[in-house]
Records
---
Amino acid sequence: MHYPDKWLRLIAYPVLAFVIRHFGDMTPWGQLLKQPLYYADLFWDMLIVTASWEANRRLIIYLDQRYSWVTQKFQRFVIQFFTALPMTFIIVIPMIYLWNEIIIDRGGFDTANLLVNDVPLIIIFTGMVHLIYTSLYYHQHYQGVIAVLENRVRELETSVAGVNKSSDLLKPSGFRELLIVNYGTSSVPVHVHTIAYIYKQNEISFIKTFDGKEYTSSSSLDSLEELLDPGMFFRLNRQLLGNIKAIRQFKSDSSGKLLLTLEPLFNEEATVSKKKAAEFREWIGGKV
């Protein structure tokens, strides 16, 4: 994953250094600006920000190549959390000690200030950096998904246009001869006479053909029903639309509901309600 973050980093480093330097410091501005050490502190804080940000950025890019935020969310979160935070502490705390106790010798390591100010800042800083890059990751991922879908739509439009020109999509009656359906990541045309039945599951329409293949469609069952010849297809129930050639037998149960046997075999019970039983018998009887 390539992150377009050049300007973000150039702006963030000095801004965050300024925030860190003033965090918990109540010294008046006028007094600070007169102290040369103030500018040295800002410079060193910017070095700390740069070093820790770059280390976290490299860690994120490394993990991007091995763990996907899309398919491995939990594993990615655990590894990133338990790596990034200790790594940032290891970078920041020695740099704070080096500056305050060795380079300028402020006199005694201020453990209380470290716990009250620096530790919360390290946690907030690390969380902020990772939140920014996680947002950029998802933004780029879904931009890519949208681009792929747009290409597929254009391909589908081209395919449909070509089929329309050859008059293969519509029957003379106005009903569809072909349906454009999904097979994996591809869009394919399927002749309606090869479709045994169409059923709805979790708001997705599944198309089962006589040769056992299964396709999907984003169109609703109601929309598909309007496209198909009612002489060939009957709305058996709210979840199922069947081809007359797929109905091998049917019988009434004690309530008057019809129980159907379909071929290829349907995984669930195929029924026609008592209310629609007479209409179904009339429909299929006209074809015998």
---
Amino acid sequence: MHFLMFAAGLAALVAGADILVRGASRLALSFGISPLVVGLTIVAFGTSAPEMAVSAGAVLNGQTGLAMGNVVGSNIFNVLFILGVSALIAPLVVHVQLIRQEVPILIGASLLLLVLALDGRIGLLDGALLFGLLLGYTAFLIVQSRRETQAAQAEFEAEIQPPPAGAWDARLPVQIALIVAGLGLLVLGSDWLVTAAVAFAKALGVSDLVIGLTIVAAGTSMPEVATSVAAALKGERDIAVGNVVGSSTFNILGCLGLSGLVAGSAGLTVAPALLAFDIWVMLAVALACLPIFLSGREIARWEGAVFLGYYVAYVSYLILAAQQHAMLEAYSAVMMGFVIPLTVVTLVVSLIRPSKGPAA
């Protein structure tokens, strides 16, 4: 029963996000807002809407560990799994703006979350700060979009087009109905998903945090998976990368910001395990983007394979740690003493190889 509830909740989240994005983007385009601005704001928010709905719903149900784990786990999943799979499909071109602006912003947001979590909670003021930064970041993107090149404008116009005059979703009442229906599905889906996730945690004897870091994080990242893989298959490889980086920033600022506000004076409790390990992994993953993106300004297939390998290693560690398995100590020693140093050396070598020049 709980598996069915989880699957139905996940389906409702994905469908709700898609319907919400369609209604909101059509409404915005009807009012003359440019496709570029719609893509940078509404579509980016839409792919992060499942994480936001689940985290806020978890807080309302008193499952703050699930809320925190969902965001941190989603960011780790976004970079290691989604970029890994997308790069295996086709080497991913990295736009120079991502290197100069978006990745540093993601690293800054990750560092800020670490600092705010050091006292063991994300309080009301912390949530207000994060959400305020999200609003400022969105406004910055809108202002910046006015200076974008014609090529960038054309790219978004090809992806997001106003509906024809006679289209079924061209009328204002339909667009509003789509937005309401999308929000309703997000709320319903988040409730089902959280309920099922808590049941899984109890049945497996693990914490809400572990379930949030793995099953729920992967489930709520399905819109990002679909968007990035589809973009890679169509050859729109910069969109595949930009979607992941932008969504990860929205997760920290928007999902945790809103969750902190919803939690009120009680705040979000940051589990010691999260502060001791998982947030540091999230930060390390964000930092790892810079040398990999700079090495020829593309994510090669072998780098995608490394990303995927590290995600498998991370999830394996969580499973072993949750079960207090006898292999945990040996596994950790191999990762810290061999795998990670070898990866660092490989990245350093790749950085000093001849660059292929900036991406357009």
---
Amino acid sequence: MRRVLRSLLVAAGLALGAVASAPAAVVVSSKLSTESATIGHMIRMLLEAHGIETIDRMTLAGTPIMRRAIIAGLVDVYVEYTGNAAFFFNVAADPAWKDLDAGYALGARLDYDAHRIVWLTPARASNAWALAVRTDVAGPAGLRTMTDFGRWVSGGGAVVLTCSAEFANSGVLRSLEKTYGFRLGPSQLIVLAGGDTSATIRAAAERTSGTNTAMVYGTDGAVAFFHLQVLDDDRHDQPIYAPVPIIREAVLRAHPEIAAIVKPLMESFDRDALQELNARVQINGEPPVSVAAEYLQSHGFLPRSATPAGGVARP
């Protein structure tokens, strides 16, 4: 695995080799996910609108490679998730990760001390694992939180949950059961060996084998489209994975205004806003760059007459 990651990092370095010839340009990148890319495009457009030249390296790689790229200086800024720092620094047992502000503060300190990477303003939303119930079930049962769900299940609520084997077997489901005082029997679980959230959401939407509850990520775009209600983790059982732009300190020193430019954008995001943005890409098939531009314009971050700003694309 180390050899594979090293090879991928070398490939990323070659792909970004031209960065050295344009040191003033800020390399804005993203992971492969819809959410990471869409927010990344927004950040890049805002920097361009404020006269900061950028290099567009969206959807570059997954988390391990992105980490190596920013530490090596091959990427300047991209959107990370607060809870991932628990694994970057081998401190997953720290309860701080279950609180947005505490997890942000801890991750920001660890990343700065170790790598001189600065965490900018996080979104007030989490893309952590969650449960979502069909709205035609959640509404009549009054289900908005996991506490509601636990009470409902314990009282005989007819729940059928479709989830991945990882969710069922890694301890996540058992942790939720313990925290919220319920227990699902074998007849109430449909476990998909390779299931991702698109499969579990569709199972709930189509009532597959009686499914009315799905394993989801909190900001999944398909949740609202398929009429599911994400249940709030009101007792903070799961770590918070809030989107947060991270930037190399050297770049922020060269462009200190970036922190203020990004702050109102990230503060504009909540769970519903991110679900809607993700749905436009994942369900409607709109390009992330177009969704990003429209969001910036509709929220007054860019004038309506503005066209999507294009960073310098480097091979």
---
Amino acid sequence: MNGMTPWPYPLWLAHRGAGKLAPENTLAAFRLGAGFGFRAFECDVKLSRDGEAFLLHDDTLERTTSGQGSPAEQDWAGLSQLDAGAWHSPPFAAEPLPRFAQVAAFCQANGCALNIEIKPCPGEEARTGDVVAREAARLWAGALPPLLSSFKPEALAAARDAEPALPRALLLDKLWDGWFECAQDLRVVAVITNWRLMDATLIQRLHASGWRALVYTVNDEAVAERLIADGIDGIITDAVDLLGPGGK
């Protein structure tokens, strides 16, 4: 790991807030994760039709909100009125979709780091990467910047071009041909893979390139222990009550 710059982010990140025990990608999930001691979070950010950055994972609204259809075809005024909690359980009914700015305020008020997955709706890759990067630079001015990540190289390229100083990470669910060269071109600081792809050899290869190695979504203690022993730099987990700061 010679020549690597210091890594300012905690080892453990709560996935989509505490996105199993509370409705994912809501402030309620962030609050719950913080209550379990987590000081770093992962979340998904996309854009409304009128350019508002907000938290949502899917390309459609049905699974996690009271809305329907693509959020890219709806303005924030309508999206802000949706119920993003009742689908999970009654205590979270009427929990709204959070604006990106609200999550930024929560993280900075609580001294928490953030990994933002840029999650564009189809066809919105460059626009989403550009807007999210510019918003992140504005919202975190003078603070520890968030780590911007995406499975979509076009979104990360737009983020790089908009705000080159913000740290970036390429997300991988498989080691597709050309991923390494793509990561070089995007000037990433980290690569985040499905945990099943990550082993000591890949960690060493990433570290030799000056990059950090992170994984999603680890919910098994034995897997986490193996990865930590291999030198992993970040673990994204759903099991906020069992692993990491929340572990028993």
